[in-house]
Amino acid sequence: MFSLTQRRLFSVLFRGSVTKTFKNDHAFKSCPHLRKISTSCKRNTVMPAWVIDKYGNNEVLRLNNNTMFPVINYPNEVIIKVQASSINPIDVNMRNGYGSASLNMTRDPLNIKSSGNEFPLILGRDVSGVVMECGLSVQYFKPGDHVWAAIPPWKQGTLAEFVVASGNEISLKPKCLSDTEAASLPYVSLTAWAALVNSCGLNKDNCPGKRVLVIGASGGVGTAAIQLLKAWGAHVTAVCSEDALSLMMNLGADDVVDYKAGNLKEQLKSRQLFDVILDNIGGPTEKLALQFLKPWSGASFVTLVTPFLYNNDRLGIADGMMRTGITLGSKVMKHLSKGIHYRWAFFTASGPSLDEIKDLVEAGKIRPVINKVFSFSDVPKAFQKMEEGHARGKTVIQVSESS
């Protein structure tokens, strides 16, 4: 029997491309999978959601009980009733306006006002919940399925009662996790996956024996990366502060460096050189870390802190992309001359990747690391906590009482 991931691939290869918008189509109205959806609002055409009407600090967040109910615009989409979500640093940054130039360019015109205005904008990327409706070409999910996903940042987010996602972005939720636990993993796990798998080419077959340094290891992406690497047999050195040392060891890190205990450069000098470095911090850390890779061995440095969106916001799309290309190109060539692969990594929404992460969760190889759970009414407090920094694990939002 084929796995879900294999069946997804076959459907992409043989189904053909369908781009027709069909929310008013007769076939959509007569679809046997449709059923009545009840919302917590008096009218079923609206729902509660946390939105922003402009970019700014925490004061721009507001609970709107009259947010328009999401609709299926394309045949590969599903509507999910959100049981739980979580807050990631990107949510705080997006609230402040980070990436607006690039994200607004990629937003689906069917999902924003005809004027091109992205507001009101719903933040939140993680979701664990229940499928309520399926588009006509969704083959491997049905109403009632418990799923999890990370929604791309150019789409309306998950701090709402319902959200629309592509069938290629969702995966069946691990049965061993509650919705609250499951909501803590998709975005950070897929970001770690993008860096380690997509950018560095690591997998369960080539990871054993690899020495990997994770900088900024105690955050959401760092804790996910450590567990993924250990599940595949890598030797992991984690860089964090003293108060996270026990967490790092509990997650399986082989070696832990407290960057506050002394000069980080001197501490790393006492270790063997690394095959891969994952940098979650950026800034001067990048220059420092690069000297601890094995030269001329195919070693890789990958960072999640890039100037791509910042350049586009500051300079505009054309000039921003040109500046970004020049920056990346110069760094790639500089380090390639030393036999080192320099790479940037970006979050990528992927149901098939979540399928594999799900298997690791159910095998006990990856577990949620949750710092605090907030109620749906306390979303601004969750943002405030995220802004304070130094969280050990994820900040989760319980959207439904049953999560």
From TrEMBL:
GO cellular component: mitochondrial matrix; mitochondrial outer membrane
Keyword flag Isomerase: no
GO molecular function per UniProt: nucleotide binding; oxidoreductase activity; zinc ion binding
Catalytic activities: a 3-demethylubiquinone + NADH + 2 H(+) = a 3-demethylubiquinol + NAD(+); a 3-demethylubiquinone + NADPH + 2 H(+) = a 3-demethylubiquinol + NADP(+); 3-demethylubiquinone-10 + NADPH + 2 H(+) = 3-demethylubiquinol-10 + NADP(+); 3-demethylubiquinone-10 + NADH + 2 H(+) = 3-demethylubiquinol-10 + NAD(+)
Keyword Oxidoreductase: yes
Intracellular or extracellular location(s): Mitochondrion matrix; Mitochondrion outer membrane
Keyword vocabulary terms for this entry: Membrane, Mitochondrion, Mitochondrion outer membrane, NADP, Neurogenesis, Nucleotide-binding, Oxidoreductase, Transit peptide, Ubiquinone biosynthesis
CDD domains: RTN4I1 (cd08248)
Annotated metabolic or biological route of this protein: Cofactor biosynthesis; ubiquinone biosynthesis
One Pfam family, short name: ADH_zinc_N_2
Residue span, Enoyl reductase (ER) domain: 56-397
Biological process annotations from GO: nervous system development; ubiquinone biosynthetic process
Alphabetical list of InterPro entries matching this protein: ADH-like_N (IPR013154), ER (IPR020843), GroES-like_sf (IPR011032), NAD(P)-bd_dom_sf (IPR036291), Quin_OxRdtase/zeta-crystal_CS (IPR002364), RTN4IP1 (IPR037397), YIM1/Zinc_Alcohol_DH_Fams (IPR050700)
PROSITE patterns in the cross-refs: QOR_ZETA_CRYSTAL
Family: Belongs to the zinc-containing alcohol dehydrogenase family. Quinone oxidoreductase subfamily.
Name of the molecule in the record: NAD(P)H oxidoreductase RTN4IP1, mitochondrial
Annotated source species: Pelobates cultripes (Western spadefoot toad)
Classification of source organism: Eukaryota, Metazoa, Chordata, Craniata, Vertebrata
